[in-house]
Write a structure and sequence with these properties.
Length: 475
């Protein structure tokens, strides 16, 4: 009983020290008071209580079946997502590696040796054989929280990696949406250019007939020809741009551009109304902001690791085994064992290395905190940017629609007056150019609004759902 009391007496301080944690107490960063609504919110971007975005497959809000099919192929085929998933698997492995230090380390050894010695005096041999087997057990009590903080830093790093994966997935999905609607915008441009070329060809033929009959000059014919060939050149440029956009979409979904194609479709989907969450929930919906916060927690835990280096480590060890020696003269076996603590050497002077390491961890935490602040500011900026685009471009589309109607009517009047000989062909060229420009500007506005809708959903965090965080940095 007295032996048990003595062991308990020496073990009690170790158990008490094992509860120490030298890392600063970690508190999640909090934002200052936020407004109830975003500054740029408007009719096309209502705040709550509007219907929320889908928790998954958020792109379905755009109501485009082709886009839905393409988005689903990203998850299965994207090389960038596969690389991000591999990085997450690496971070999980690092957590398991750090956690392994909580447990004893057991090593086993074995050896066999044989020697022969020749005695020259009588020509006989001396045969010597030695067999040994043993093992050691060592365990380092986590007296200063070094191992716990290593595990905490690794776990926070893994949580940051899974949030990075979610942020990359969301970014790729949004990029695909952007490219897809830009491609559809190019399809609409190409369709209008082809219609215009047909009209310009008819106008050129009419002008040539009038020139042959003496009703028009050669100048009118040259103007009509220039108008036609310039528009044909623009058609080829738009077709080239479409090919590049199609190739970009192929790479995003992990397909070979050589075998991937999307059939032309000049129809444009309607711009949906995007519901917007309150500013107070934005930072909880952004995976990149969550990743930045987790890196703050990891940096905080590493401060505890650096502080623990100023204190000695105690390693408890035990070893045992047996050794058997067989020779022509004798045969003997022995057993050995040892048990006891070993106090690790503590550096008295290291040239300031440990102080430098501690200073570096504090600076790394300050960097992580600044990165979190920057990620938060960037999140609010991106939302406000897309809100401004959606709402102001909607008003611009209304005005542009009126401009298209006016340009079409002007072109009609100029063509009628030219046939009647009231104006020269310059008036027709001017009216035709204005109509084509107005119609192309309208397509550009619709495309920009669709892209802004995709980018707003991305800025709001898409359908990402935050995981349950740990209550403190030690996990």
């Amino acid at each position: 009983m007295s032996g048990f009391i003595r062991k308990t007496f020496w073990a009690a301080p170790l158990l008490a020290l094992a509860c120490c944690n030298l890392a600063p107490e970690y508190r999640k960063p909090t934002q200052t008071i936020l407004p109830l609504t975003f500054k740029e919110a408007g009719p096309w971007t209502p705040t709550q209580p509007a219907a929320p975005l889908p928790s998954s497959n958020w792109w379905t809000v755009m109501q485009d079946e082709q886009l839905n099919a393409l988005e689903e192929r990203i998850e299965a085929n994207s090389p960038q997502l596969a690389a991000a998933l591999a990085r997450y698997d690496q971070s999980r492995a690092m957590v398991r590696r750090a956690r392994a230090d909580f447990f004893p380390q057991i090593d086993a050894t074995a050896s066999a040796q044989r020697e022969q010695t020749l005695f020259l005096q009588n020509g006989s041999y001396f045969d010597y054989r030695d067999y040994a087997a043993g093992g050691t057990v060592s365990w380092e009590p986590d007296l200063w929280g070094r191992i716990r903080n290593l595990v905490s830093a690794a776990r926070s790093g893994a949580q940051a990696s899974i949030n990075d994966l979610a942020a990359l997935r969301l970014s790729l999905q949004a990029e695909l949406g952007d490219d897809y609607f830009q491609l559809r915008g190019l399809d609409a441009h190409i369709a209008i250019l082809r219609q215009t070329i047909s009209a310009y060809q008819a106008a050129l033929e009419l002008t040539q007939k009038r020139f042959a009959g003496g009703a028009s000059s050669e100048l009118d014919v040259r103007r009509a020809s220039t108008q036609l060939t310039t528009t044909q050149s623009r058609l080829e440029q738009e077709t080239a741009d479409r090919a590049l956009m199609e190739h970009a979409i192929a790479v995003l979904i992990g397909e070979e551009p050589t075998v991937f194609s999307l059939p032309p479709d000049s129809s444009m989907v309607s711009v949906p109304v995007i519901p917007v969450n309150a500013p107070s929930t934005l930072l909880q919906r952004r995976p990149d902001v969550a990743a930045a916060e987790r890196r703050m927690a990891a940096a905080n835990a590493r401060i505890g690791v650096a502080r623990a280096a100023f204190f000695p480590n105690i390693t408890l060890g035990a070893s045992g085994g047996s050794e058997t020696t067989i020779s022509t003269l004798l045969s003997a076996g022995t057993g050995v064992w040892a048990l006891g603590p070993a106090l690790a050497t503590l550096a008295i002077f290291d040239g300031g290395r440990r102080f430098a390491d501690l200073e570096a961890t504090h600076a790394a935490y300050a960097e992580a905190a600044a990165n979190y602040r920057q990620a938060s500011l960037q999140a609010f900026r991106e939302v406000e940017d897309q809100l401004a685009l959606l709402n102001h471009l909607a008003d611009a589309s209304d005005r542009q629609s009126e401009a298209v109607s006016a340009a079409i009517r002007t072109n009609q009047l100029a063509s009628i007056q030219y046939r009647e000989g009231a104006v020269d062909y310059l008036q027709v060229v001017t009216a035709q150019t204005a109509e084509l420009q107005a119609r192309e500007d309208m397509i550009t506005l619709v495309t920009r609004r669709l892209v802004a809708g995709i980018d707003l959903v991305r800025a709001l965090g898409g359908g990402w759902q935050p995981s349950q965080p740990t209550s403190n940095g030690t996990g």
